[in-house]
Amino acid sequence: MVFPQHRISPEAYLRSELLADIKHQLIDGKPHRMPDVSSNHNLIAGNIACELKQQLKGTPCRTLISDIKLRVADDFFYPDVMVVCNEDNVDPYYKTAPTILIEVLSKTTRKFDQSLKRLRCQNIPSLQEYVLIEQDKGEIQVFSRAHNWQSFYYYLGDRISFTSLDISIAVEEIYERVDNEDVLSYLQQKPQDASQTAS
């Protein structure tokens, strides 16, 4: 399936995307092919999605991964991870009312995720936190509606408190088995557990 290069309507995009072999985002009426992701990118997204899903069991909140679209006005994105706590069943292929959005940064998507996408998503009334996770170093940036979209940074050894969900996640868990210099250095400096020390 080949998308047209001219602007298309949301309805035409949704019909075409159902038949497409490769996912596309729709921005200002123009489809943009989703870039390939690295193993680190995939691990990070999977780790935080797993932690969120575990901690949100028994709540109305659902953790969704990158195959589900987010609609913001007439734009459509594929967030790496999103948490939806409100009833949001307008369409089976996209959501409109996330509580948290999470993006794993890469060289090809960094500028877009940090700027245009973030600013458009901050207009979603339900959104409380927008999270950017570095894959090449141990650094996470959280933008919070409760603090007028001020950002806070977290590093290996920290815990991130998601106030909108009343949960927290250790940064170390998010980077579990991820291969970058920060993670390797952190693990080398981390004290061995008691059982290893005793032996």
Structural class: alpha+beta
* Large-scale geometry: globular
Biggest sheet strand line-up = 3-6-8-9-10-11
Order of helices and strands: HEEHEEEEEEHHEEEEEHHH
Strand segment tally = 13
Q: Estimate what percentage of residues fall within beta strands.
A: 25-35%
Q: What is the terminal separation in angstroms?
A: 60 Å
Largest sheet, strands/sense/barrel? 6 strands, mixed
The number of helical runs is 7
Instruction: Provide the helix percentage.
Output: 25-40%
Parts with pLDDT < 50 across at least 5 consecutive residues: 194-199
Rg over CA atoms, rounded to whole Å, is 18 Å
Chain-averaged pLDDT: 90
Protein model, in words:
Helix content is 28%, strand content 29%. It has helices at 10-19, 39-55, 110-114, 116-121, 171-174, 181-189, 194-198; strands spanning 24-27, 30-33, 62-65, 69-72, 75-77, 81-84, 94-95, 100-105, 129-134, 139-144, 150-155, 159-162, 167-170. It has a six-stranded mixed sheet with strand order 3-6-8-9-10-11. A three-stranded mixed sheet has the order 5-4-7. The longest helix is centred in the N-terminal third of the chain and has 17 residues, at 39-55.
